[in-house]
Amino acid sequence: MKELAGIFRTRIELRQIGVRDEAKILGGIGPCGRILCCSSFLGDFEPVSIKMAKDQNLSLNPTKISGLCGRLMCCLKYEHDNYESGKEKLPAVGSTVATSHGNGKVVALNIEARAIKVQIFDLGKVLELPFDDVVELE
Fold first, then answer.
1. Vertex 54, ends 29 and 43: CA angle to 5°?
2. pLDDT tens-place string over residues 75-106
3. Are 121 and 91 in contact (CB under 8 A)?
């Protein structure tokens, strides 16, 4: 290091960076086919948890939810707010709802497709219905 400082006649500092910072500097293409979020528009790295992947109904397979840096993908945090705000307006899983097909129980939410899976009591089937066709009963 002293040799390099002597050759270039300047002060040289070495700093250790994390794996996310390394991915941000190197860049690359993410699994979605776009430029990495961290290198294109995300400024700071906020904590990302496995709960965020669960809330977004993603596979919990580590290879599918890990970014190029080997950590959980930053976009999980970036997209989490949209899923949280979408869930606030919808009936909870397990609640009783009324639909055009009859009353039923909410089995799952698909926020991306704007649909709710409902187990219809009279039919004995699970139907995926648009948000507008489901009203929560109290």
1. 40
2. 888 788 888 887 777 888 889 999 988 899 99
3. no
| DSSP letter for each residue of 70-85 | SSBPTHHHHHHHHHHH
Task: Provide the edge-to-edge strand list for the sheet that holds 134-136.
Answer: 126-130, 115-120, 102-110, 96-99, 134-136
pLDDT band at 36 (very low <50, low <70, confident <90, very high): confident
Taking a C-beta distance cutoff of 8 angstroms, is the pair 92, 67 a contact? no
CA torsion, ordered 44, 46, 52, 58, to nearest 10 deg? 40
Q: What is the DSSP string of 98-115?
A: EETTEEEEEEEEETTTTE
Length of the chain: 138
pLDDT tens per residue, range 9-30: 999 888 888 888 888 888 888 8
Rounded to an integer, what distance in angstroms lies between the CA atom of residue 118 and that of residue 126? 5
